[in-house]
Amino acid sequence: MVEQGIHWLVDNVEGPLWDATIVILLGVGLFFTITTGFVQIRLFPHSLREMWFGREVQGDSLTPFQAFATGLASRVGVGNISGVATAIALGGPGAVFWMWLTALIGMSSAFAESSLAQLFKIKEADGSFRGGPAYYITQGIGSRWLAAAFAIALIFTFGFAFNAVQSNSIVEATRNAWLWDEHYVGMGLVLLTALIIFGGIKRIGKFSARIVPVMALVYLLIAVSILLIHYDRIPSVISLIIRSAFDFSAMAGGVFGAMLSKAMLLGIKRGLFSNEAGMGSAPNVAATADVKHPASQGLIQMLGVFVDTMVVCTCTAIIILLSDNYGGEQLQSISLTQNALKYHMGEFGLHFLAFILLLFAFSSIIGNYAYAESNIRFIKNNPVVVNLFRAMVLFFVYFGAVNSGGIVWAFADTVMAVMAMINLVSLIILSPIVWLLLKDYHRQAKQGIVPVLDIMLHPRLLKLRLDQRLWNRR
């Protein structure tokens, strides 16, 4: 019955919804890029410094780096390996260009949403923080129903659909490499996930902070080694990507089919799935960090978008395009990337990617859960409800492992678009607050001092924080 409902949703909603989402996604990204004075370029050095400026924190709140690593745990995963391969197989090499553009523009949206999440976060009794779009929609816009709609969309997207995608990709990779049975893999993932998610957000942050840098470094070392071996071919591959990006011979279909190529559609879809810029996901973890200025964490999460797409996705794409076979229906998803590594590294590449994907995808499951749990607590902060939600998360981890990749990916695309639409519209409404935070941060940074937000200096923010304290008492 669950599968029938997902089929209906995909068949009747996905196409028209994505037509609108693409326009709004790129429009909002351009809006913040221009109105913030190209913050993703102008303050990029500050984002590097903010990420490494960590300190001990009280209670269960996360350090800036732990929040960055948890956000990166969800970003760096199947989207960088399986998503890039799917985009290239179905949209051609030009899809990579549109992934780049989505990330570059989306970095400004990522800054906006994570800065707002820090401003409107709330403090728990144990000293930890939680927040995200549901919180800044409620406090900044004053719309509880819109906040609840976003929270529900995020729960379905990250708690259920994206985790199903992660487990599905793990199954495909381990089947190709080791012939593992999907039912046993699914049960193993359920067990491992349960051990982590019942330990709370602090355990998630510690787990991500340890595993994400290691797994990303190993994968990138392999990727860079392959690129160095074939360094003379890299310029031609990049040229191929750019030329193919503007090949409109294969149209995407739908309402805007006359304007969008398959490369553009697949690049934007898979780019958003991978880096999540503007989607409303990363702010949920950005809010858990203990920082002195909201814009500090906005800059850190902006860096995550860059690392995810411009670095990791690009390495994967070039590895695939340097191989002997990267087009057509025969090889898609993780199988295409495994074939490329096998071409470059022999049988070791096949087994290596299966192992690394286990780490990538499993850390993404944990990061996804962290996002969804915050929104469950927004709707109903009750231990019984939270534990019921955890059980449903485990169900969808298994569901993704034993069902076809086509239906799992299509379900993820559909609910992802719903969530992104709500968040992007909310960001536009709250844009004056984003500009105020950026101006305050930049003023202090130019003076050579560590930026600290003093709400007393900003009457509008002071009123919002007073309203928030009243809301927290309800």
Automatic annotation (TrEMBL):
Instruction: Give the main localization category.
Output: membrane
Question: InterPro entries attached here?
Answer: Na/Ala_symport
Q: Give the membrane topology, semicolon-separated if more than one.
A: Multi-pass membrane protein
Transmembrane stretches, start-end: 20-44, 97-120, 145-164, 184-201, 213-231, 237-260, 302-322, 348-371, 392-412, 418-438
Which Pfam families does the entry mention?
Answer: Na_Ala_symp
Compartment(s) of residence: Cell inner membrane; Cell membrane
Listed A to Z, the keywords are: Cell inner membrane, Cell membrane, Membrane, Symport, Transmembrane, Transmembrane helix, Transport
Q: Which PROSITE patterns match?
A: NA_ALANINE_SYMP
Question: Which PANTHER family does the UniProt record give?
Answer: AGSS FAMILY TRANSPORTER, SODIUM-ALANINE, AMINO-ACID CARRIER PROTEIN ALST
NCBIfam families named in the record: agcS (TIGR00835)
Give the UniProt family note: Belongs to the alanine or glycine:cation symporter (AGCS) (TC 2.A.25) family.
Name of the protein described by the UniProt record? Alanine or glycine:cation symporter, AGCS family
Q: Which species is listed as the source?
A: Basfia succiniciproducens
